[in-house]
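Extended Data, record O-fucosyltransferase family protein
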Amino acid sequence: MPLRRKVRPAGAAARRAALRWWLLSLAATGAALTAAAALLAVALHVSGSGAGAASASSGAPYRLSQPREAEELRWEQEVAPPQLASPQSRKLDGAAEKSLWLPAPSRRFVPCVAPSPEYPSPAASRGYLLVHTNGGLNQMRAGISDMVAVARMLNATLIIPELDKKSFWHDRSNFSDVFDEEHFISSLANDVKVEKKLPKELVKAPKSVRYFKSWSGVDYYQDEISPLWDHRQVIRAAKSDSRLANNYLPPDIQKLRCRAFFQALRFAPPIEALGKLLVERMRSFGPYIALHLRYEKDMLAFSGCTYGLSQTESEELAMIRENTTYWKVKDIDPLEQRSHGYCPLTPKEVGMFLTALGYPSSTPVYIAAGEIYGGESHMVDLQTCFPILMNKEKLASTEELQPFSQYAAQMAALDYIVSVESDVFIPSYSGNMARAVAGHRRFLGHRKTISPDRKALVRLFDKVDSGLLKEGKKLSERILDIHRKRQGSPRKRKGPVSGTKGKDRFRSEEAFYENPLPDCLCQPGSPYSDDSLVI
């Protein structure tokens, strides 16, 4: 007979927990004060979490690969009166509830990233590789991981990469502000020599500055880049994005990329600590969805997607696109973009999508995003459907967020942690964050990740808007059928779209870090598998 944990003595924390659970039960009923009840519940939780915050920040670094059991975090239920349980939750007992959260069968795939026996220690360094990364957090993470592999191929000493400070976000973060620098250096010690700075005598020395060719293989780096060591001691990579092919690289190079991306690039301890705390606070509501809601100003301006926006908002986005010099495409047809599935789902469309999938209004949803364009005015429909709508600003106090709030990459890292650890992850758009989180969830055991078929959904939603189709059972059946095989089950990485040529051919491939199978995932029993990374 299983042992039951002792109920903690009733006290201030217990009373706060009981009140909080009662407020959440109100939120589940669909009453008019749902949103207020949910937010007050969070306020109570944050106000009473000082001790937890101190514990998280002073303990060992948070490891994404070791999530805590939901039951361990939901201590509130030990003191909440039984009659306060959510009536909506009772309706979903059994198979119906289980199917909402159950991941697709993983077929027992586990990380498989250990070097082969033929993998030698790093050769004598021929020179130093400086890397200037570009893009947002996850574009930089992918670029850094690729440059680790490039440094290995070039027998180079990698200098800690310089993060992008000139892109749309104007983030002044340094590498050590976002990532655990010491861990990065030590974890790659058997692969690549990494140093924090150039030797003083080389700081002002002439450098060979190169824009490495996109989607290149080993031959390019050995034949065209390696000879540069004959003339210079320092090579500077002016950009880092997509400079390495997705496929057809040596197995040990592919495994090194995975070790860099999924293991070496751990976030800085303060970010890990607060990320863990946000996960615990979300889990106190029960199983939750992390929704990467790509509805920020930069995304809409770049993509030219203006569906559902006012004329004034559309003109503002067009002006931003026109004035951003490194965005090459200026004239975009928003209706054509949307019809092809190239636009992020709107908050309203996301609400319709989640409802059609069968998630009840009491489902906790974490919004992993920056500032939503248009603010609350564009969030009303989604908030009405799912009142327990949370983000880092609601889950954490101003004081807790203050060290990170002015830095886009650090705030995005918090969202990344909560998204990787969620019970279900759903991106509204397939950008860099969505691909990185999806890949990390595959790496950690193929956790449930639902990838919306935006092109198909837009057609269905347009039929609803025109009155040809009603929200309800028929719409739900159509959407469930479309997404039955889009829930993160194991499969080999997709190659290029048939008929594409040149750079478009590489661009159409599934990104390496989005799906590291077969290179970095294998079934137990392989000599290079690491079952301990998957819980």
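Summary. Residues 137-154 form the longest helix (18 residues).
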